[in-house]
């Protein structure tokens, strides 16, 4: 299936390989958490299709379903099976990550599945001393087997997301271009900042990616401009359009590039993977941890507030 994808997308794949030869890439198990505590913003769609697009670029890719909803698991065609070794068993330290990894239909893409029993880990681990480090510790043993490990987080800043953010090298934040978009994300940014000062000093922001984008609306364009001013170069150039193929693919148990490789949705996630790989190879953007607000372009008017966490800027623009 992998070569099917490669043949259908020869130019894209050759381009990825030319720009990011793995020999010089020298990446080993970069862990990217796809997180936003707001529900339904496209975390799972992004996690599945980004992980699949890495695999299609012949980069060894692992998707870890960290959400009790198990949508990544179902979306890759696996029934929710309580007997299967899953993320739950990694968090309770009842199994190794090696035991949990399963192959998918797409060559180069592996999955650690989830099950709704994972919700119990939130409670079961409450008293455990190393409760925030369970996933990080579990993934350590298999990091070297993958180039990218993508974590699909639940829509909450709970212990599961915390485990993902402690295990991660960086966070990819999917966002919709809508009213109050920033308001929802401020709590996540605060959490990332706190983690940098405690459990995970190296945690970076991979980027903010706009999802379900409808460029026909003025609002979307207006919000995008505003987000660009807030996030600077942390706002990724690749924008994921609203595309019905992306919504349909999970019901066939496939990433979009196996369901309809010519769709705008599949193509946009291939571009996102490519952009992330390019940025990682570019020393200017692979930098020491910095807060998103520090990334704001210096050309911003001086009278703008430094702290955007309450989303006031966005509201003001939208109301005008
Ligand atoms: N670009 C897109 N175009 C069309 N539909 C999309 C797109 N991205 C996501 N969807 C659909 O929107 C819904 C929510 O997406 P998704 O499940 O990826 O969000 P989520 O953030 O993971 O949700 P949750 O917070 O519940 O985990 C799904 O039905 C999905 O198929
Ligand atoms: Mg989800």
Could you give a quick summary of the protein structure above?
By secondary structure, the protein is an alpha/beta fold.
Account of the 3D structure:
The protein is an alpha/beta fold and 320 residues long. It has a single domain, classed as Rossmann fold (3-Layer(aba) Sandwich), CATH 3.40.50.300. It is built from 16 helices and seven strands. The protein has a seven-stranded mixed sheet with strand order 3-4-2-5-1-6-7, sandwiched between helices. Helix 11 links the parallel strand 6 (170-176) and strand 7 (204-211). The protein starts with a helix and ends with a helix. Mean pLDDT is 84; it is low at 1-26, 285-291 and 293-320.
Helices and strands in order:
Blueprint: H1 2-8, H2 10-19, H3 22-25, E1 30-34, H4 43-56, E2 61-65, H5 71-75, H6 87-91, H7 97-100, E3 102-103, E4 109-112, H8 119-124, H9 134-140, E5 148-152, H10 159-167, E6 170-176, H11 181-196, E7 204-211, H12 218-231, H13 244-248, H14 256-259, H15 264-281, H16 312-319
Parallel strand pairs: 1-5, 1-6, 2-4, 2-5, 6-7
Antiparallel strand pairs: 3-4
Helix pairs in contact: 4-15, 9-10, 12-16
Bound molecules: adenosine-5'-triphosphate and magnesium ion.
- Number of extended strands: 7
Structural class: alpha/beta
List each distinct ligand once. adenosine-5'-triphosphate, magnesium ion
Question: End-to-end span in angstroms?
Answer: 50 Å
* Name of the CATH first level: Alpha Beta
What share of residues are in beta strands? 5-15%
Uncertain regions: pLDDT < 50 for 5+ in a row? 1-26, 285-291, 293-320
Radius of gyration, CA atoms, in whole angstroms: 19 Å
């Amino acid at each position: 299936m992998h070569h099917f994808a490669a043949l259908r997308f020869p130019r894209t794949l050759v381009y990825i390989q030319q720009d990011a030869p793995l020999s010089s890439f020298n990446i080993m198990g970069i862990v990217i958490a796809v997180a936003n505590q707001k529900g339904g913003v496209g975390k799972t769609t992004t996690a599945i299709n980004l992980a699949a697009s890495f695999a299609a670029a012949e980069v060894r890719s692992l998707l870890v379903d960290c959400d009790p909803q198990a949508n990544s698991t179902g979306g890759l065609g696996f029934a929710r099976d309580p007997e299967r070794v899953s993320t739950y068993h990694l968090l309770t330290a009842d199994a190794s990550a090696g035991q949990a990894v399963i192959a998918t239909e797409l060559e180069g893409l592996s999955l650690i599945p989830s099950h709704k029993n994972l919700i119990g880990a939130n409670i079961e681990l409450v008293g455990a001393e190393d409760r925030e480090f369970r996933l990080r510790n579990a993934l350590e043993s298999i990091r070297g087997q993958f180039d990218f490990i993508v974590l699909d987080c639940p829509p909450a800043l709970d212990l599961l997301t915390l485990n993902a953010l402690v295990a991660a090298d960086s966070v990819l934040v999917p966002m919709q271009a809508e009213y109050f978009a920033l308001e929802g994300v401020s709590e996540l940014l605060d959490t990332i900042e706190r983690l940098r000062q405690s459990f995970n000093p190296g945690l970076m922001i991979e980027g903010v990616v706009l999802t379900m984008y409808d460029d026909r609306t003025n609002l979307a364009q207006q919000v995008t401009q505003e987000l660009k001013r807030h996030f600077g170069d942390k706002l990724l150039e690749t924008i994921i359009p609203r595309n019905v193929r992306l919504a349909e693919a999970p019901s066939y148990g496939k990433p979009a590039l196996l369901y309809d490789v010519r769709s705008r949705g599949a193509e946009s996630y291939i571009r996102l993977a490519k952009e992330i790989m390019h940025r990682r190879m570019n020393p200017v953007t692979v930098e020491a941890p910095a807060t998103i607000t520090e990334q704001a372009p210096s050309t911003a008017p001086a009278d703008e507030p430094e702290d955007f966490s309450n989303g006031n800027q966005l509201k003001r623009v939208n109301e005008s």
